[in-house]
Amino acid sequence: MRNARGARGSLFFGADRCFKRRESGSRFGMLLAVRNFVRIRMLFPLALLTLVLLGAVMVSSSRTPASAQQPSTGSPTPVAAGASQAATPGAAVSVSSAQLQQAGLNIVVLDPAHGGTDPGARGSGGIRESDIVLDLAAQVRRALEAQGFQVVQTRQGNENPSFDDRSATANAQRGAVFVTLHISSTGLPGTVRVYVNSDLPTVTDSDGLIPWDRAQAPFLGLSRKFGDLIQGMLVQRFKGSPAVAQTAGVRQLRTTAAPAIAVEISSVAVQDRAEIDRMAPGVADAIARGVAAFKPSYVIPAGPGARP
Ligand SMILES: [Zn+2]
């Protein structure tokens, strides 16, 4: 994060290029927000429909194994009975619970911040935040995959997706957490800070749906728990780091409908990039262990407006 206003300054909206909103105030921005809002509106009904259909398949296959294995008999009766039972309220609830357990945390969306024409924070020695976080993401990815998690990155190379595009990548997943990676321009070199979004009023429309720019609101409690776990892992290795996650108005996190944190390493002010690179394995390990520790806490909300 590039910072001209003190340790927390870079994390607030519009404070600097770290969290600038490129579409702000434009008609395109409004269209994008509407498009993404529609996306979020469609996501939940589709997810619910998928759960019910999967439930019907599970119930029919578990209760009528013989008929399922003998499709050539031509009798549809047992399958129809199974499907009918799945539609009853009791069956739907029990199947949904099983599905939610299967659909628990298994995806980590990694966001190497900045990129393209936005280098992020730059040190006097020519260090660029956008380059370092891309290399860091590769190490975090390997550590997470070794723990059995699937990793989705918001960028693979030197491009710069918008804040909304990055959030859309996260919001398209189910059973995901989101981690955006930054290097600060200030702070004690060798320390690492985790940020979660500050309180957001939960706003819903007349249908009980959450607007795109408040997507993080229902997840704040989980985000804090997630952030504290990872900060706790980081402080064990990087002395001088905070013991618990900090809060700030982080633009990238606000539109993310998942437990979401920013991880910020200090800093690009070091003379030699190797000083930061040496921290990468420890940061990657702490994030991977933190995600694994958080996994049992992650219960996916049943729908928009439902607090996880
Ligand atoms: Zn940054």
| CATH class designation of the largest domain | Alpha Beta
Helix content: 40-55%
Strand line-up of the largest beta sheet: 2-1-3-6-4-5
Radius of gyration: 22 Å
Describe the structure.
The chain is an alpha/beta fold. The chain folds into two domains: 30-101, no CATH class; 105-297, Aminopeptidase, CATH 3.40.630.40. Helix content is 44%, strand content 11%. The protein contains ten helices and six strands. Strands 2-1-3-6-4-5 form a six-stranded mixed β-sheet, with helices on both faces. Helix 7 links the parallel strand 4 (192-197) and strand 5 (246-248). The chain starts with 26 loop residues before the first helix and ends in a 14-residue tail after the last helix. The protein binds zinc ion. Zinc ion binds next to loops.
